[in-house]
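ok so I'm stuck.
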Amino acid sequence: MRSALQQYKNVNLESDIESASPYRITQMLMEGCVRFLKQARFAMEKKDYEKKSYFISKSEAILLTLAGSLDRDKSPELHDNLSNLYAYAIDRLIEASVSMDVEVVDEVISIVGTIKAGWDAIPREEIEKAERLRQGV
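replied:
not stuck anymore, here's the structure
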């Protein structure tokens, strides 16, 4: 039963991604990153090293994806600031993985949460305007 439910969730997620705007995909990545970080934290508390490593790796992969999606040409200052934050967060996750320090994971959750809050606060009109420009409308 669990396998069927997981397959349904995976198909549903793939469908959501295929129809999502770049704004929404970025939002989904940040949501996933926070979720994986919380799971890594829980695994650390339970001394489940395998799951800790898995969820930290997933979080790092998302942070690398977010960093790689930045466009320096559109906003060099924003690019540099976010690149530095993502690099710092990844460095801290490496440290947390070695030290098993949940407070370091909490710090990264806070960083990603703050970036996500800023992203979520972008006015709807600006999101729609960017989407029209992207589509050439």
